[in-house]
Design brief:
The protein is of the alpha/beta class and 345 residues long. Helix content is 31%, strand content 17%. It has one domain: Alpha-Beta Barrel (TIM Barrel), CATH 3.20.20. The protein has a twelve-stranded mixed β-sheet. The protein binds S-adenosylmethionine and iron/sulfur cluster (SF4).
Length: 345
């Protein structure tokens, strides 16, 4: 006899995922590992403890999970981390997911990376149907780069970006705006990116996870960055969207696009079309809330996807209207205790 949940999803597993506020879920971000070869000071503490390998979903399980979402109308899939390209055999997952591009079920397969492994993988990514990638880079100054990432090597990242562009990938640079760290360099970073035909998106520091420094010290509102840029450049609001939360302007002098991702100064929840899964199969319906659903247990409980689809339905029915990020000046506690490397941004 079927259980109540099995009955609910029987025959209905191809129905699109619509949350209680009428938002269709079309974008899934999957953190494929919590590990990373960098230790960016706003993202991780220097001495992170990582998950035991057996807690991680296997590549086959990640494929099954992503495919279950694609079957429910997810059109855009972004692999992230930790650093996705340090997960062993990660190209096996890209290759297998690319079948959904071939059938047309998936419109975009993409990745957010720190760039350290791109020289090795750029061509493979293209072969798997990846067309655009995001590379995180906060500074072009080797010493600052080392100070921000603790373990990173700027030369490797820059040659990774060269390799990506040479392989034909469209590259967008993501930079976190950091008070006293890279704030003076933002115009130079923008001119460099635009000069190479790359968009640049600026991100506000989000209060995720305990990282050993105070968020109020790192926080630089993008409203201020934008006002400073506007005194030097002509910024024209444009409609361009990539399915993500960035709002774009065209910079007249460079001809390039500049995006602003402002969770703290601008609420972008209204049009939220995305959910996130961690490498242990935990589904977060909102980056800024603690509520989550375990998809690993239903995934492992049976070979059929019935239980998994039911768990996805139950979770999406709980997707909140929005987040409530605040950097609390009194307690200086992060609004959400998990690190960004868990959900991948
Ligand atoms: N390792 C990859 C990378 O750095 O691109 C992918 C994962 S990383 C967590 C994804 C993005 O989140 C990066 O652009 C990073 O700069 C950003 N990020 C990490 N911690 C953040 C925080 N506390 N606030 C805002 N952005 C953050
Ligand atoms: Fe690693 Fe990316 Fe976090 Fe930096 S931001 S520590 S590269 S996961």
């Amino acid at each position: 006899m079927l259980t109540r949940i099995e009955k609910q999803t029987e025959g209905g597993t191809s129905a699109p995922l619509i949350d209680p506020f009428g938002r269709a879920i079309s974008y899934l971000r999957v953190s494929v590992t919590d590990r990373c070869d960098f230790r960016c000071f706003y993202c991780m503490s220097e001495h992170m403890s990582f998950l035991p390998k057996q807690d991680l979903l296997t590549l086959e399980e990640l494929d099954r999970l992503c495919s279950a979402f694609v079957a429910r109308g997810v059109k855009k899939l972004r692999l992230t981390g930790g650093e996705p390209l340090v997960r062993r055999d990660i190209m096996v997952l890209f290759r297998s997911l690319s079948r959904h591009l071939d059938t047309g079920a998936l419109e975009e397969l993409t990745v957010t990376t720190n760039g350290s492994q791109l020289a090795r993988f750029a061509k493979d990514l293209v072969a798997c149907g990846v067309k655009r990638i995001n590379v995180s880079l906060d500074t072009l100054d080797p010493q600052k780069f080392h100070a921000i990432t603790r373990w990173g090597d700027l030369t490797k990242v820059l040659s990774g970006i060269d390799a990506a562009q040479a392989a034909g990938l469209a590259v967008k640079i993501n930079a976190v705006a950091l008070k006293g760290e890279n704030e003076d360099e933002i115009p130079a970073l923008m001119e460099w990116a635009h000069g190479r035909g790359m968009d640049l998106s600026l991100i506000e520091v989000m209060p995720l996870g305990e990282v050993g420094t105070e968020r109020v010290d790192q926080y630089l509102p993008l409203s201020l960055v934008r006002a400073r840029l506007a005194s030097r450049y002509a910024l024209e609001d444009i409609d361009y969207r990539t399915g993500g939360p960035a709002r774009y302007v065209r910079v007249k002098e460079t001809g390039g696009r500049l995006g602003f991702i402002t969770p703290l100064t601008h609420n972008f929840c209204e049009g939220c079309n995305r959910v996130r899964v961690t490498c242990t199969g935990t589904l977060f319906m909102c980056l800024g809330q603690e509520d989550a659903a375990d998809l690993r247990a239903p995934l492992r409980a049976s070979e059929s996807d019935t239980l998994l689809q039911a768990a996805i339905d139950e979770a999406i029915a709980r997707k909140p209207k929005g987040h409530d990020f605040v950097i609390d000046r009194r307690t200086k506690q992060p609004a959400v205790s998990r690190h960004m490397s868990m959900t991948g941004g």
